[in-house]
Amino acid sequence: MPEDSPKRADIDRFIQDRVESVPHLEALLLLWRERPKNWSADTLTERLWVGPEAARAILRDLARENLIIAVADLEEYRYESDPEKDRLLSALSEFYRQDLVGISTMIHLKSSPAVREFARAFRLKKEQE
After folding, report:
1. Which residues are CB-contacts of 19 (< 8 A; sequence separation ≥ 6)?
2. What is the pLDDT of residues 10-68, one digit of tens each?
3. What distance in Å separates the CA atoms of residue 93 and residue 71, rounded to the nearest whole number?
4. Is-contact 67 77, C-beta < 8 A?
5. Are 92 and 14 in contact (CB under 8 A)?
6. Three-state SS for 129?
7. Cβ contacts of residue 23 below 8 Å, gap of 6+?
8. 20 to 30 A from 116, CA-CA: which of 5, 7, 39, 124?
9. Mean pLDDT score of the chain, rounded to an integer?
10. pTM for the model
């Protein structure tokens, strides 16, 4: 990997901060690899084996994170190249290819604040019994 490539710690931080699920990661990498192609939820559904609603949500989530952009009036999205983001996604793609299980596990182990709060409340209730 080139000297200026992001390090694994940078990739891990990016995943922790901006990637909600494995399908989100796979969608982002797919749009990045096939840039500048426009993607609809239906097209993403076919490639990721997720339902249409899930595909729409994934595309909206990635756009909300400014990782992809919505194409006006088309209900389509695309990855917009940017040198810094391209370097990050290139490194991410390489690390994901090398450590698919590790990165997938890291994503699966992430939990939302609501889930953590629910688990904490459940533990407190159990301890009181």
Report:
1. 25, 28, 107
2. 999 999 889 989 999 999 999 999 999 999 999 999 999 899 999 999 999 999 999 99
3. 24
4. no
5. yes
6. coil
7. 48, 50, 54, 58
8. 7
9. 85
10. 0.80
